[in-house]
Amino acid sequence: MLDIRFEKTTAPKEIPDEDNPLVFGTIFTDHMFLMDYEEGKGWHDARVVPYGPLSLEPSAMVFHYGQEMFEGLKAYKTEDGRILLFRPDKNIERANRTNERLCMPEIPEEDFLAALKAVVKTDEEWIPTKEGTSLYIRPFLIATDPFLGVRPSNTYTFIIILSPVGAYYPEGLDPVKIWIEDEYVRAVKGGIGEAKTGGNYVASMKAQVKAHEAGYSQVLWLDGVERRYIEEVGAMNIFFKIDGKIITPQLNGSILPGVTRDSVIQLCKDWGIPVEERKITIDEIYEAHKNGILEEVFGTGTAAVISPVGQLRWENHIMKVQDGGIGELSQKMYDTITGIQLGKIEDTKNWTVEVK
Ligand SMILES: *Cc1c(COP(=O)(O)O)cnc(C)c1O
Fold this sequence. Notes:
356 residues; D-amino Acid Aminotransferase, Chain A, domain 1; D-amino Acid Aminotransferase, Chain A, domain 2; 2 domains; 9-stranded mixed beta sheet; 30% strand
């Protein structure tokens, strides 16, 4: 059992009013979890302490070489007051795969889960309950050696912060416009595309800004070599429904393996909908659209769960999907996954974990 020290805040903040929209990632709860690592000594000093600034050397390696892992998952409060996490084991597994890729220490799975539960339980009053709201959980690991040489750090800090988030779609699912990027690339096979780490995000910002300026909300990335194969959207995986079949790019080393992606694939299989995980080219999408069989497109990720795509722009082609509206499967998938997360639909797959 992880031995956690608790230091409660003496100056609790005001919990935001749920009726005012909570902008994603702007408000943080009263506490955070920290735990340190040192080569030879291992993990130590697990603690839940008041949320606040960290003290780090300016030479800390994370600032210079980007050695960091992050994760994102959510806690929900059910109508009968239980607190549920959605598939935290998948996030923990993925965090450790990221840690391995970035030469950072493994965090024991049971300690990671105990840390999540401890900090969420401490700030449980911050979990909003209005339709569509949740408590976003951001675990991350940073390299802290005060050293400018290039090698993996010997010391690290693991941190978990919490942020109440409002409904992603206050007015119901709202289709997004997607910009298919043909100049910049996000990641290549053999690189760090399948790791959840800041480096992939900074690589994506230039195209994101370009897409925003053109009136598109997110970027869809093509492969970094041929610029033909579909990879994923900014912070979401992507699914296409073509002529009754569901198609999503296969995990190829440069795509982030999403927990929501995995959940969607499993549900499609349960519902008897054919799912193909394979290579898919932008030309295939363009042809499908031209032939009127591109039936639905949606992104999947923890923040929005399901994000229907109403329009895709590729070079000078504009492809409208579902007339800019929401597909039947996108809606059913959203209702089912959020229903399980909120304890409204029976969780036959043991996806939810209760925090007691
Ligand atoms: C986190 C993330 C996703 C979505 O993963 P989920 O586990 O479903 O939230 C997809 N793509 C990228 C680049 C990501 O960082």
